[in-house]
Amino acid sequence: MITWIHVGVKEMGKKLLALSGSCRRNSNSEHLLDVFLDEFISVAPDSYVIKMVLIDGSRVIKEKSQETGSLKGLEFLQYPGGETAVSERVWDIRPCLGCDFCVSGKCVQQDSMEEIYGKLNSADILVLSSPVYFYGLPSHVKAIIDRCQLFYNKKYRRKEKWRQQPGTGILLVCGATSGKQLFDGISLCVRYWFDAIDFEFSGKVVVRGVDKPSAVKKQIKALDEVRELARSVAERL
Ligand SMILES: Cc1cc2nc3c(=O)[nH]c(=O)nc-3n(C[C@H](O)[C@H](O)[C@H](O)COP(=O)(O)O)c2cc1C
Questions:
Q1: Which of 12, 53, 71, 166 stands the most exposed, by the fewest C-beta atoms within 10 Å?
Q2: Residue 228: Cβ within 10 Å count
Q3: Residue ranges of the domains in the chain?
Q4: How do the residues of the chain divide into helix, strand and coil, expressed in percent and rounded to 5?
Q5: Which residues, 6 or more positions from 8, have their beta carbon under 8 angstroms from its beta carbon?
Q6: pLDDT of residue 55
Q7: Which ligand 1 atom lies nearest to the CA of residue 136?
């Protein structure tokens, strides 16, 4: 398992893992995430932040890439004190096979999830920001969640304690329409995911009525809510 990347800076900082669930350029949900991270880092500059982003779909189309099936992405790191790094990544995240091999304490598949398990394991704070796809999560995000059946089995079938204390889990979501139940499916899914991986569901911001790229930038009230949530998480550290 890969441990947290660390370059000789203070050990004290909390570790925040941010997952951006959109593949779109100028993504609304990624903007929500960036607003959250900016505020969080301004209040807690000694934190380690890893942001995992998928490469934008529009770039795939433009470059006529044959590799539309692979999940390319970027990884942004912000070390305590402000040093940053960016790397290009290819995430190979296969769907859960439902084989129950993970009752043994290990997943039968060897892919990028091994690294993501490690990151989830060592994160104190987890922020998932995602668009709504058909009242649920995009399939690449859901694949990560399903593969966390490993943690569910560790917790409930093997009775193994694998975290010292529960982490802090945050959800940010946006969707195009204004349906009352627009975020119900995602909220329930993420609530049970956080429980399985031992994160407390500690807050969410949902934004309706944003469809075009960057449309969320005009949602001043929602962005303020995101900042307030980030501040409250950072101040609780
Ligand atoms: C495959 C797909 C399914 C979608 N399903 C819904 C939906 O069920 N309800 C909704 O309100 N918006 C839906 N949308 C719209 C997106 O949620 C919306 O455009 C959002 O702002 C995109 O966020 P992003 O820019 O972070 O990708 C869907 C978009 C796509 C591409």
A1: 12
A2: 13
A3: 15-235
A4: 35, 25, 40
A5: none
A6: 62
A7: 8
Burial class (CB in 10 A: 0-12, 13-18, 19+), 148: buried
How much of the chain, in percent, has pLDDT values that exceed 70? 88
pTM of the model: 0.92
Sign of CA dihedral 108, 51, 2, 148: negative
Q: What is the pLDDT of residues 144-159, one digit of tens each?
A: 999 999 999 999 999 9
- The residue count for the chain: 237
Q: How far is the CA of 206 from the centre of ligand 1 (A)?
A: 13
**Which pLDDT tens digit goes with each residue over 56-98?**
555 555 555 545 556 777 888 888 888 899 888 888 889 999 9
User: Which candidate, 43, 112, 53, places its Cα nearest to that of 77?
Assistant: 53
CB atoms within 10 A of CB 165: 8
Whether the predicted pLDDT of 178 surpasses 80? yes
Q: Provide the β-strand partners of residue 136.
A: 133
Sequence-ordered list of residues with C-beta below 8 angstroms from that of 75, at least 6 positions apart, any chain: 50, 51, 52, 53, 86, 87, 88, 89
CB atoms near residue 124 (< 10 Å) = 20
Nearest CA to ligand 1 atom 25: 27
Question: What is the homologous superfamily of the domain 15-235 according to CATH?
Answer: Flavodoxin domain (3.40.50.360)
What sign for the dihedral angle of Cα 93, 94, 98, 104? negative
